[in-house]
Amino acid sequence: MESYYIFSNGKLMRKDNNICFDEKFLKIEMTNDIYLFGEVDLNSKCLNFLGQNKVSIHFFNYYGFYTGSFFPKETNVSGKLLVKQVNYFQNEIQRVEIAKEIIKSACSNIFRNMRYYNGRGKDLNYEMEIIKNFQLQIDNLKTVSEIMGIEGNIRKVYYSAWNKLINQEINFEKRVKRPPDNMINTLISFINSLMYTTCLGEIYKTQLNPTISYLHSPGDRRFSLCLDISEIFKPLVVDRMIFSLLNKKIITEDDFETKSNFCYLKEKGKKKILVEYENRLKRTITHKDLGREVTYKYLIRLECYKLIKHLLGDKKYCGFKMWW
């Protein structure tokens, strides 16, 4: 199944039993989702057809910021699992248990990234030692707010090391989101949003409800479970991808536009990133438990299945941790 990325302006429409954009046909049976970065018109006839074929659409504004998604009607629904999801959220002890495991996995994957570069000429011993100390504190935390506090501290130390990890001259002092103020913050925001939509798509293929989460607080107008799952996989997909794009000079200052304190990607930069992002999701590893090759993207769905087993009382949840 493929993802299609549309940057130009035009009309997305149903034509016979297919989807057409500016006289170009998309193979509906091979389409997983569509990403719209341009000004695209579409009508209910088109949306109904996409919904019938279980094709999702993700919308981004001119600056590349994610604005929302259209998802077909859910077919994988389970009232039993929904009740379990809610019960685990309402039970503080059970919620904290899941939140801790998410942060342990995220922290372990962050540490793997730092250890990788520390063995390749980057002196990260100081930052790694601080993160180790934070890791040791996780088991003793009692509330989700305390866990989020540790997560913020870990990220702060991790980001402070990025100037050592990245070979281009970029002054990256802290994470700035709204709006991103330099190349690195812009890359993080853009690729994180891609990761959120990928996680949402994988959650949609399971019986989990994407609005009920454990680390991040559920709220109106957001799929907070995507934020939970993405914390685990951002170090593997997003962060390693940013290091590679910048260190190999695939992405340079020429791929960005700056206005006042606002930095955003040009179209050519977005296109290069999307090619690399798709390639990353298609990478495979030999899964230790399954004994077969699985893609990075499928690892995300496996994470959802592990959470389902935990909620149903079949097997205790153990978050994904890189071993290579």
Automatic annotation (TrEMBL):
It comes from the Bacteria. Mn(2+) binds at E151, H216, E231. Keywords: Antiviral defense, DNA-binding, Endonuclease, Hydrolase, Magnesium, Manganese, Metal-binding, Nuclease. Its EC number is 3.1.-.-. One of its GO terms (molecular function) is DNA endonuclease activity. InterPro entries: CRISPR-assoc_Cas1, CRISPR-assoc_Cas1_C, CRISPR-assoc_Cas1_HMARI/TNEAP, CRISPR-assoc_Cas1_N. CRISPR (clustered regularly interspaced short palindromic repeat), is an adaptive immune system that provides protection against mobile genetic elements (viruses, transposable elements and conjugative plasmids). CRISPR clusters contain spacers, sequences complementary to antecedent mobile elements, and target invading nucleic acids. CRISPR clusters are transcribed and processed into CRISPR RNA (crRNA). Acts as a dsDNA endonuclease. Involved in the integration of spacer DNA into the CRISPR cassette. Belongs to the CRISPR-associated endonuclease Cas1 family. Homodimer, forms a heterotetramer with a Cas2 homodimer. This is CRISPR-associated endonuclease Cas1. It comes from Fusobacterium hominis.
